[in-house]
Design a protein that fits this description.
By secondary structure, the chain is α/β, with parallel strands linked by helices. It is built from twelve helices and eight strands. The longest helix is centred in the first third of the chain and has 18 residues. It binds flavin-adenine dinucleotide. The site of flavin-adenine dinucleotide has 24 residues, from strand 4, strand 5, strand 7 and helix 11.
Length: 303
């Protein structure tokens, strides 16, 4: 575990909640819907809304998650600015691929009634096969169903080949999960170089790449690739996480007629949000030192 992650893991939940608030829309469906609506009305930014939660292992929690997504779909209704993102480990992966596929299929079908697109997020390497199997099965009936590939994994070039002909929405990112050196690149510059190569392949294979990064050099190079390949501006989009301070870059892309979509997570129950918030804080360059100072301060104050 890196030092930043170690420090963030030491932080007590209330501190995590406080510092992570810019990365989370709020604690209700309405807060998520309102946030997406505001991004759209004020800045013409699209959203993908995600109910926070992962590694759920009880039937009760899985059914609760399905219920929240169903209420979210009803609250969103037909609109053009918001999609949904969801994770296998919050939707029954612990009971196997067949069960998880059935649960996710229910949500995707419900969303399709309102023409809402759904993306299946990618978690750590233990779930890559399951995620892609579910994706391949459900895209047959739902052509706008999308998924995610992580450029850090050695297997990803092969996975792109295996998606040939699907003309799918593919979010391509470096991947947030620390993966062992036997199966994944370890250096960020190498992951980003690979990501750019894979964006080019995704274009050439007829997919709709969703370029998910906050690295402006990577975004610029991806746009150069799109231009070189004569891609139209409606054949790809750029995605970022809400809370990462990249407003000027996003507004510039929008002025240039490129679709920008923000990941808008929310949680009704705070315990489901902790893991996501810790990952975001660990990725924030200033945050680990800040949290560390805060913990020291509190510890000194208690003595
Ligand atoms: C919309 C979206 C969806 C994603 N979905 C998945 C997924 O399904 N599976 C998965 O494994 N990964 C996912 N990710 C995470 C992704 O894989 C990367 O881990 C993450 O985007 C950081 O990589 P980067 O390319 O932005 O580069 P970085 O080098 O990490 O970031 C570039 C710059 O952005 C700034 N920055 C980045 N993060 C923060 C932060 N938290 N706070 C403040 N500044 C920051 C810093 O200035 C940094 O220098 C997703 C990312 C996005 C944007």
């Amino acid at each position: 575990m890196g030092l930043k992650r170690f420090i963030v893991n030491l932080a007590p939940s209330p501190l995590v909640k406080l510092f992570a608030s810019p990365y989370v829309a709020g604690d209700s469906i309405q807060a998520a819907v309102d946030t997406a609506q505001k991004f759209w009305e004020e800045r013409r930014i699209c959203s993908t809304i995600d109910l926070l939660g992962e590694e759920l292992e009880s039937e009760e929690e899985v059914q609760y998650t399905v219920g929240v997504y169903e209420r979210l779909i009803a609250a969103l209704g037909r609109q053009e600015h918001a999609t949904l993102s969801l994770k296998p480990t919050q939707l029954g992966s612990h009971c196997g691929t067949e069960y998880c596929q059935e649960i996710i299929g229910r949500i995707v079908a419900k969303a399709a009634e309102q023409e809402i697109k759904v993306t299946l997020d990618m978690e750590d390497h233990d779930y890559t096969d399951m995620t892609l199997d579910i994706f391949r099965a459900l895209i047959k009936d739902h052509p706008t169903f999308g998924t995610v590939l992580q450029s850090r994994l050695f297997r990803t070039d092969g996975d792109i080949k295996s998606l040939k002909g699907l003309n799918a929405r593919i979010r391509i990112c470096i991947g947030i999960y620390n993966e062992p050196k036997e199966i994944a690149l370890q250096s960020k510059p190498e992951m980003k170089k690979k990501m750019l190569q894979q964006i080019e392949v995704l274009f050439k294979e007829g997919h709709y790449p969703e370029i998910a990064t906050h690295d402006e050099a990577v975004i610029n190079e991806a746009l150069n690739i799109a231009e070189r390949l004569n891609m139209k501006k409606d054949q790809y989009e750029v995605q970022m996480l809400m809370g990462v301070p990249k407003q000027a870059c996003q507004d510039k892309l929008i002025r240039n007629n490129i679709l920008v979509r923000l990941y808008v997570p929310f949680a009704e129950k705070w315990k489901f949000a902790i893991a996501y918030c810790k990952r975001r804080l660990a990725a924030n360059p200033a945050m680990a030192a800040y949290i560390f100072k805060n913990i020291l301060h509190k510890t000194a104050g208690k003595k």
